[in-house]
Amino acid sequence: MAKYPVVVYGASGYTGMLIMDWLIDQQIPFTAVARNAKRAQEMMAQRVVRLESATYELVETEHSVAALAKVFKGAKVVCNTVGPFVQYGAVAVEAALEAGCHCIDTTGEQSYILEMRERFGDLYRQAGLLLAPSTAYMYTFAEIAAELALETQGIDCLETATLCRGTRFAAAGVTVGSTASIFGMARVKQHYLWEKQLVEHPVTTSFNVVDPSFMQPVFALPWSGTSLPVFYQHDARVRSCISAVGFYDNNVMQLAHGFFQKWDAEFKHLPPEHQDAVLQAAVQSTTPSMPARERTTGVRTVDFAIGRGQLAAVRATVHGLTAYISTGALQTAAVTKLLDGETQRVGFASACKAFGHRYLLGFLEARGLARATVTHL
């Protein structure tokens, strides 16, 4: 049973430790949960800032619904960082529901988010609990931009882009878990929202994204489709939503695009165990270990949304720093509201819908992690 109101599941992981950094900064006690307590304690001692001043406990448990529900019981909020979420996420979501906890996580994997909406959305709503996946840099920054665009009367179509610098896998800060999720996208369908319906992207889809922040177009991909078409599918304001992701300082996206084409041609019909081996080899070859902590001078982001209506048009941009550190901040912003009993939604909902995009943007701006601009076109 959790001793404290917040559980961080994935205590030895890169993102989990950054969430703990922010919880400590905000003086919020937490229960850190890991599958290997000894390793988690060692990693936390090395990585978690101000750990010596934290109020926390560390609990070891196996990854099963029964075991996790027992550990989560007594807490109010579970922050889940254990991925790839397509493989491991549903277990934590079910356990949090059984334990009577709100559940927020850090993934934008579209297939997982669709599954969680269908399997658990109504169950969480009936329990008066919030299930908010993708409470993270990807794709809350882009959703903040989209919500800023939607403040303009008459906007009903959205195009969003998430553009990052400093993301050459481990050398510049992509974690092992994120890399596994990236290559795992080859297995799943990716959708955009068109006239209120989710439509599958062809496997060859790519974008040359133009933004005034850059001299040249940025090569981008649907990147599993992102969470935004799912979040906006049942939003009365929005008819269409197309999202793209690009890394603007290197050729990672071209490499990923090539891998996805190769998967479609050579691997998609292999037995699952053979596919697992291919994906594991790809992860090991690009991100063999945990990366160093992000630097604000190295990791920069530009997320924008173009909104259009019959006559209206607007472009909202959120410039940011340190995607993973910002994820820890967003998780803590959400925790703060949930501990105070302040959520605008229960059941399945995005962070912006649950807490308000202006609140989340203000939390980031106050800490020097983001700034926003809106231009009417």
Tell me what you see in this structure:
This protein is α/β, with parallel strands linked by helices and 377 residues long. The protein is 41% helix and 22% strand. It folds into two domains: 6-136 and 325-368, NAD(P)-binding Rossmann-like Domain (Rossmann fold); 137-323, Dihydrodipicolinate Reductase, domain 2 (2-Layer Sandwich), CATH 3.30.360.10. α5 (110-126) links the parallel β5 (102-105) and β6 (130-132). The longest helix is centred in the N-terminal third of the chain and has 17 residues, at 110-126. It is globular. The N and C termini lie far apart (54 Å). The model is unreliable at 168-173 (pLDDT under 50).
Helix content: 40-55%
CA-CA gap between termini: 54 Å
Tell me the count of domains: 2
CATH architecture of the largest domain: 2-Layer Sandwich
The radius of gyration computed from the alpha-carbon positions, rounded to a whole number of angstroms, is 19 Å
Give the low-confidence spans: 168-173
Summarize the biggest pleated sheet: 7 strands, parallel
Query: Number of helix segments?
Result: 13
CATH topology of the largest domain: Dihydrodipicolinate Reductase, domain 2
Task: Tell me the total number of β-strands.
Answer: 16
DSSP strand (E) fraction? 15-25%
Strand order of the largest sheet: 3-2-1-4-5-6-15
User: Which word captures the global form?
Assistant: globular
Average pLDDT level: 91
